[in-house]
Design goal:
This is NAD(P)-dependent oxidoreductase. The chain is of the alpha/beta class and about 325 residues long. The chain has ten helices and 13 strands. The chain folds into two domains: about 1-175 and about 220-245, NAD(P)-binding Rossmann-like Domain (Rossmann fold); about 175-220 and about 250-280 and about 290-310, no CATH class. The strands form four sheets. It has a seven-stranded parallel β-sheet with strand order 3-2-1-4-5-7-11, with helices on both faces. It has a two-stranded parallel sheet with strand order 6-13. A two-stranded parallel ribbon has the order 8-10.
Amino acid sequence: MILVTGGAGFIGSHTVRALHGMGEECVLLQRRTPAVPARLADLRVDMAQGDVADLESLRAVGRRHTITGIVHLAVTLPWEAGNDDAIAAAGRTLDGFLNIARVAREWGVRRVVTASTIGVYGGVAVDGALSEDLPLPTGHFHVIPTLKKVTELLAGQLAAEAGVEFAAARISGTWGPGGHLPDPFFPAPSLAHAAAHRVAPDLTGLARPPYAEDALDLCYVKDTGRALALLQLAPALHHAIYNVGSGRATSNAEVIAAIASVEPAFQFGLPSGDVPPARWLDTTRLREDTGFSPEYDTAAAAADYIAHLRAGSPR
């Protein structure tokens, strides 16, 4: 059985669904409730209420289930810790990561897949494909990539000294059912939502104004979840860090064109601007070690997401 922390969340729920499709049973750890989330109600999943920062609640899962692998997606951010307490949030995140390592060793699990982010490449002076062996800058510019770089380093140390196999997944920009709306970093979810409900897009939640030429490695969440499941189940991995994405850059203009092919009434454009050269994740390692390739191109992703939104989901 695979323990998935954060398994009721956006990427986590799709990872659970992918693991289920590959014949694996999952137990989901949730802080707030042991209830099965509606988005997974059609699957047979086991639930456990607990917190990765609470070692005893983690150990209780191991007493009830035989855990053979862990996908660790849960994270505590400052605005979730109360009173914007950045120190408490960082402490809970690191405590949770170390507790996962502790129980992984105690249970003898074969592998821990832990979520990192494309954001760790922020500040890297490379255009085009981003490979896992690029040196990363150590400066801080956002809490998420900072914490992910720290846990990647810890994973390498623990793999070498504690005998726990870790695979860190640097996850690209991900969109699809259950995702952030708005996503502060790219407009694709807001554009799809507007087209599905035939309203004007609201892009005010973005961190900066978007342009037509803005491009990033954009991956549909069903592909992201499947990639994480493959990393967990691969017979052997030859690296400690894997890029997880589509392996190509997708521009906002391409997203708009794909959405318009599904909803021709969606007539919307973004201004052109002076944007940096496109960058994307080199997914060679992922393809070679797991056989992964995306099943959803931009058009298929837009069609699937809009159908999901029109079926009644707010996200």
